[in-house]
Amino acid sequence: MSKVLILAEHNGSQINQSTAKVLTAAKQLNADSIDVVLFAADANLSAQVASLAGIAEVKFVECTDNHDQLAASIAPTVAELGKGYSHVFGPSTTFGKDVMPRVAALLEVNQLSDVMEIIDDNTFKRPIYAGNAIITVKTDTPQIVATVRTASFAADKSTDGSAAVTESKLTTAADHTSFVELSSGNSDRPDLQTASKVISGGRGVGSEENFDIVYNLADKIGAATGASRAAVDAGYVPNDMQVGQTGKIIAPDLYMCFGISGAIQHLTGIKDAGTIVAINKDGDAPIFEVADVGLVGDLFKIIPEMMEKL
């Protein structure tokens, strides 16, 4: 039997879906109990976590001056709390990838990254070689620190939980680093990593100005916007929109991509999507090999036609 501690992620007002997805993964363990540690300035966020069924306790740690955004500040507390648990899980998001390696180092254990399937309490599957192969990893260490690939697990939708909430204040705030700001290139649209619909553009869009046509379609259907690495490298869009091996790994219900050829690094980031729709003027583009729906054509003609029908 095991005890699990989950690191919660939030945006200041809402708990990120990544927390509910990590909970889904944790429930697949033979766990005696599952607790969640939440670092935030707003104690009201605790109620959102406590409402998820299956959580025994929410450890709310009050932070000021945005120290909840700093891995250097919160990792020592996570590690100290984690000493009493067999498993310490965090999301394999930008936030989780920042915090969890520090936690593993402080606990003097190796981190297991990008868990995509749980076989048992000590055996997991994770992707290697840009997702081209899946490796099964078995560990006999007494404590496991891992990041969970959120694209591989559905979010826990329960709302009838009644976890106990304990409160404390952060005592490990770092003095050698400080929070400056958090900014996003498309913050007015749904979060790319949790959106149910994503519209992406690639190098075929042609320019930063031309990306407006992608944004307009996304706004029309309430989708998040993404991009290939080629589009990011060309300067068409900011790098926080990049989808793929070196960008964001996503699993929306609908993924539509325009002008993206389908390099293996990009396919790694979308392989868990529900329905993939690809539009490209090159009928031999690799993207068509994985697309559920493919259309050979000019995106600058197809998108306006789609807009007229919506």
In short:
The protein is α/β, with parallel strands linked by helices and 310 residues long.
Biggest β-sheet: count, sense, barrel?
7 strands, parallel
Order of helices and strands: EHEHEHEHEEEEEEEHEHEHEEH
Low-confidence regions: none
The residue fraction in helices comes out at 10-25%
* Strand line-up across the major sheet: 5-9-4-1-2-3-10
Number of domains: 2
Text of the CATH class of the largest domain: Alpha Beta
What is the residue-mean pLDDT, rounded to a whole number?
93
What do you see in this structure?
This protein has helices at residues 17-26, 45-50, 71-82, 94-107, 212-221, 229-233, 264-268, 299-309; strands at 2-7, 31-40, 57-62, 87-91, 111-115, 117-120, 123-128, 133-138, 144-148, 164-169, 197-201, 224-227, 254-258, 275-280, 293-296. The chain is an alpha/beta fold and 310 residues long. The chain has two domains: 2-169, HUPs (Rossmann fold), CATH 3.40.50.620; 197-309, Rossmann fold (3-Layer(aba) Sandwich), CATH 3.40.50.1220. The strands form three sheets. The protein has a seven-stranded parallel sheet with strand order 5-9-4-1-2-3-10, sandwiched between helices.
